[in-house]
Design a protein that fits this description.
Radius of gyration: 17 Å
Number of strands: 2
Order of helices and strands: HEE
Strand content: 5-15%
Largest sheet: 2 strands, antiparallel
Shape: elongated
Structural class: mainly alpha
């Protein structure tokens, strides 16, 4: 059985330390991704280009794919 609730450990007990650590990692990744997007859009704007389609990137640090 897969534990979908990150706030609980595999036995079903509350584990706020792990949950908070994972939440902070995700927040860091979100911030890095949005900084990257801002940089990409700025470079395109300064170069006279416009992005027309979806950008897909993979975070080398976490393996998360952003679509």
């Amino acid at each position: 059985m897969v534990n979908d609730d990150m706030r609980k450990n595999s036995e079903g007990y509350s584990d706020p330390t792990v949950y908070n650590a994972l939440k902070n990692i995700e927040k860091d990744g979100d911030e890095r991704f949005h900084k990257l997007l801002d940089a990409i859009f700025t470079i395109c704007e300064l170069s006279g280009f416009h992005i027309e389609e979806r950008i897909i990137v993979k975070d080398k640090k976490t393996g998360r794919i952003w679509r």
